[in-house]
Design brief:
The chain is α/β, with parallel strands linked by helices. The protein contains 12 helices and 16 strands. Strand 10, helix 6 and strand 11 form a beta-alpha-beta unit. The longest helix is centred in the middle third of the chain and has 14 residues. The structure holds NADP nicotinamide-adenine-dinucleotide phosphate (NAP).
């Protein structure tokens, strides 16, 4: 039943970014002749992908990344779940293992591989065994956002009894951060729109602010500051306006930390330039010059083997859980991208790469 390298096909179906463009339908093409990388380096495995999940990064790259930086076409996306079909003897996986993981962008670009294709070859460190209580559709969306959330908590050293404020509690990064922060014994205050309040509370949020009803968030928090200032402020929504950090004196401890998942403007127009310089100054200059006491940081998530294993255990023990927003068939991947660009998904937008219809999980 399981495949050895010799029996892997030479080519596969893959969704690739063929040109710079937005919406994603202008950039994407479905190729049927995409090469399957069959040669394993030490420690590598080949995975037959069952399901892939989307991250906002992919459409941002399609929209903004010029060809002179990374030559198109390249296969898109990073997160997936699948079955090992070929494994180097030094890797810790064997043929038939059910896994999930993420294609490191550096490896993806250099080998022209992504998650929206049928087979991917990558280092075993970027994989974990899929716990039996998590379906491939659920597991597909874990790696990028859960490892980023864990890194936020590790980098900020959030401790029991401290408070984290998360702007964007219903984002995937926010949802993992809520769950992991509660496991550390921290208090969690989040923003989300009213419709997502029950969802974020079900994940463990202690207090919820409807960001659509309070006006500018920094103004609201300054006028109604928490009784004890936050130890950590995480912007999981990637606000382009830097005020949540620059105006944080009233609600963030002076020795606290502000962390952003990466500010993104709605459009890179000339109007976005002043904020670009504001961010560069706020995050790059010494704090005696910026006059913001709390530290500021832009997180760039990286997949680490120990983080993968830590998260796998929590998933298996049922201490954290993934959320699936919706599942699309492979041919309908463009519709999946249309969903994620709305920034209204609650949980992961997943694409079925090779599973039968009957394996679908109901949308939450
Ligand atoms: N730095 C890194 O390593 C890294 C890793 C992963 C992701 N990211 C970035 O992190 C951001 C979030 O990614 P994701 O995959 O977690 O997002 P996502 O799941 O696609 O986010 C969708 C959610 O965002 C909420 N939302 C949209 N605008 C908001 C706002 N202004 N304030 C609060 N909530 C808002 C929506 O809730 P409502 O419908 O209630 O508004 C929706 O539930 C993206 O910018 C992504 O590129 C960075």
């Amino acid at each position: 039943m399981f495949t050895s390298p010799a029996t892997l096909p030479a080519t596969q179906r893959a969704w690739v970014s063929a040109r710079k463009g937005f919406p994603p339908s202008r950039s994407l093409e479905l190729r049927t002749d995409w090469p399957v990388l069959k040669t394993l380096k030490p420690g590598q495995v080949t995975v037959k992908i069952q399901a892939a999940a989307l991250n906002p990064l992919a459409w941002k790259l399609m929209r903004y990344l010029p060809n002179w930086i990374i030559k198109r076409p390249w296969a898109v996306e990073n997160d997936f779940a699948g079955i090992v079909v070929s494994a180097d003897s030094t890797s810790r996986f064997k043929v038939g293992d059910e896994v999930y993981g993420g294609v490191d962008p550096a490896i993806g670009f250099s080998t022209k591989q992504g998650a929206l294709q049928e087979y991917v070859t990558l280092p075993a460190k970027d994989l974990a065994k899929r716990p039996p209580n998590i379906s491939p559709f659920e597991a597909a969306g874990v790696t990028v956002t859960a490892t980023t959330a864990l890194q936020v908590l590790n980098d900020t050293k959030l401790e029991e009894g401290q408070t984290i404020f998360i702007n964007g509690g219903s984002t995937s990064v926010g949802a993992w951060t809520i769950q992991l922060a509660k496991l550390r014994g921290a208090k969690v205050v989040v923003t989300c729109s009213k419709k997502n309040e029950d969802y974020v509370r079900s994940l463990g949020a202690d207090e919820v602010i409807d960001y659509t009803a309070v006006g500018p968030l920094h103004t609201y928090l300054t006028k109604s500051p928490p009784s004890t200032k936050f130890n950590v402020v995480l912007d999981a929504a990637g606000l382009w306006d830097s005020s949540l950090y620059s105006q944080s004196a009233a609600y963030l401890q002076p020795n606290g930390i502000f962390i952003t998942v990466g500010p993104t403007p709605h459009e890179f127009t000339w109007g976005a330039v002043p904020q670009l310089f504001a961010w560069l100054a706020l995050l790059g200059l010494p704090r005696f010059l910026t006059r913001v006491q709390a530290k500021g940081k832009n997180i760039i998530g990286a997949v680490r083997a120990e983080d993968m294993e830590f998260l796998r255990r929590l998933l298996e023990e049922g201490k954290i859980r993934p959320t699936v927003d919706s599942v699309y068939e492979f041919e309908d991947a463009v519709k999946a991208f249309d969903r994620i660009v709305t920034a209204r998904a609650r949980g992961k937008v997943v694409v079925n790469v090779s599973l039968s219809q009957s394996s679908r999980v109901p949308s939450t």
